[in-house]
Amino acid sequence: MPKFGNTSKEKRALLCNDLKRLVDEAIKEYDFSIVETHRGKAEQERAFNLGFSKAHFMQSAHNPCPAYAVDVYPYPTPKVQHNGVIELDSNSAEWDKMISVFKRKAQELGIKITCGIDFKSFKDKPHIELTDWKERVKKI
Q: Which of 60, 78, 119, 138 is a Cys-bridge partner for 92, taking CB atoms 3.0 to 4.6 Å apart?
């Protein structure tokens, strides 16, 4: 059975309880790495400036702590060689397999999620957030 490595365990600690439950259930069925959870202001603005995010600080579910968003990569991460350079294979079917596990587990747990793979204008395959994260932040 897959299990989290040390880096994923450290990042998991920064998730809200619902996302902890979700990743704990998903790892039982599909091997993945947690690559991003909470982002502070500098990290969020860097992600925005590099084009990895369309949100400024406090416009992202990654910004509250604990985080209401998680970025996950299939493990091992699908890679492809392009012009002699090995890079992330964003077209790999592993992304769809992984996200389908997350969607099914979320439904089983009664957790409503929004997946970046379904975004209309900006496909963010690793991204999973709680659908109601903005309402949750208002209650803090």
A: 78
